[in-house]
Structures are given as structure tokens and as C-alpha cells.
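Hi, here's the filled form for the chain we discussed.

Project: internal
Contact: R.S.
Residues: 239
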Amino acid sequence: MRVPVTKSARWLARAAVPAPGGYPKEARAVPLKDQAYEIIRHHIIICRFAPGEKLNEAQVAESLGLSRMPVRHALARLRLEGLVTIRPRKGIEVRPIDPVELLQIIEARTVNECHAVRLAAARFTAEDTAAIDDVLRHTEAALERHDTEALMLLDKSFHAIIAQASGNTVFLDILGNLHDRAVRFWFISLEQQTHQGSVVQEHRAIRDALVAHDAEAAEAAMAHHIAAFRRNVMLLIGQ
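And the returned structure, exactly as it came back:
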């Protein structure tokens, strides 16, 4: 599947559940601590390691087929990102879902991403159109097979294309950070099949406005998309 995601994300899509005999050849070139980080993070994002779940370093290492040291490095990195909590003598816990944090992320996304999409509308190129259309084609295929993990990666790619097209590297960094913090919420939202179809429609509306270089329509479509995400996730977590 050719989508504009990082190399680690491409092999991670295949290696999230290690196959018998170890990781794919592409993954073996990645340092073990980075392998451990990417895979544990992915498990947290897709709630395979559930919010609030206690993790045992030795058991995680065994399940990944890795030694404890790279797993320890990975967990320390994930602690800095706020995805796990490490307490002396109490162990490791996956950070619970926090509705307050979600609302703060959405507020920041609304301000930054709506402006970024306006910039992208003025600068959207034929190459950008080809890239976003490729993502949408793969999204339709993932939707048909109800592949939530693929949909999550494709959703991230869709928004990354827009951030890149804005031509503002600061927005690229800000939105990348916000999306990384929101991925668990995305997965919860995308698990609902009724919402999956709506997301595709919302993405197409954003795409059409970008291709037409209509900044106002692009901003309105993005605001609608983010608001729909907020409503869906807050309903699912009972807020």
C-alpha cells in the first residue's frame, strides 16, 4: 500500500503483531529500541494496550520477542510523550483517556488546522492532488474491509498532506504533534463503522475545496470535520 507515511509506519502496519520467525526484513534495519517504541506505541494507539492497563516490562519484551533493555528505553520515551505513567514500585500504566485533554487538543486543532487548510487551498498543487487522491482511494478500500488500523494511518496521511501543502513548516510541526496526541481518540472514533463512512465524505469535501483553491470552503469543511470528530468521540466516552 503506497501512502505518504513514514518508513516505520509502513513496516509497522505489517509488524504490529509479529509474525512467526520475527519481524519483516525492512524492520530489522531499525534499531531495536525504535522497533520497541513504534510497536508499543501502536498497541497503545489502537487500544490493544487499553487505557488504564498495567504493563509488565518483562511480559511486553517477551511478547515482542525483544530483550528488556530496548523495551525499557521505549517505555521511558512513551512516558515523556504522556502515553504511559511509570511509578516506582507500582509499575507501568497506560495513560487513561482524558476528556479534558481531548477538548484541549480539539481547540488547538480547530485554530491551527483551519488556518493551515486556508493556506493549503491557495498553494495546492497537482502533485498534492495526486497524493490526496491516492490516500482517498486506499481509504475507500480500507473502509470496504473494515480495516480500522489502516484507516487510522490513512487519516493521519490525509491531514499530513494538508499540513505540508500549507507551506508553513511551523504548522507542520504543530499539527504533527497534535495528531500524535490525538491518535488514540481517532482510533476510538474510527472503530464505529457508521462514523468511518462520514469521515470519508468529510475528507472528500475538504479535498474538493482544496483542489478548487476555495479557502473559505476548505476552512468550513475542516471545521465541520473536526466538530464531527468531537461529537462522536465525546458521545462514545460518555461525556
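Let me know if anything looks off before we file it.
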